Amino acid sequence: MAKSNKNTLIHWSEDEVKLLKKLFPKGKTRQIADQTGRTFSAIMNKAHDMGLKKGKWRLWSADEIKLLKKLHPNQTAQSIADILGRSLETVYKRASILGLRKSIFYQTWSIQEETLLRELYPTNPVKDVAKRIGRSVPAVCHKAFLLRLSNGRIWSKKELKLLRKLHPSKTAQEIADQIGRTAAAVKTKAVDLGLRKIKYRQRKRL
What we know:
Layout: H1 14-23, H2 29-36, H3 40-49, H4 62-71, H5 77-84, H6 88-97, H7 111-120, H8 126-133, H9 137-146, H10 157-166, H11 172-179, H12 183-192, H13 200-205
């Protein structure tokens, strides 16, 4: 059969089939891919057609665990399974055992959420926007940055008072989380007000 853009449609030779039978049950999908030049999905589809299954108790290597920890925050479980040559179920289980969590920025935003963010962000406190959308403040700020949204609302007396109080000893991000502003907005306003941080020696005396 002539080669196709879809790797799964390319004819499998006898040698490739033998290699698949030998290596697939041992979980060596990456090795099969390297030797045949096929994609993970093509290998999994062929293995499924042939009724091949991976060994249930295949141990995780140190390199696999390291790669899982690296990819898990920002990759789907399916893409990780394809890269590692593991089943989707084993990836879920191992991630759970290791206590891995997704990045706060990982989850895809819906069209409705983006629309609401565009509507609310320019004129409302970030904390209120986050509460309305059901996202964390850092996630809202990050998405607003990606969408090039700006928050032009006027600083209230209460916010300015809190900024002056917190600025000497807190980071811009810590202040931003309490006030409901972005860290960039906090830094800009602090410069406008001529605020300064407490120096290390001064902190030790306090």
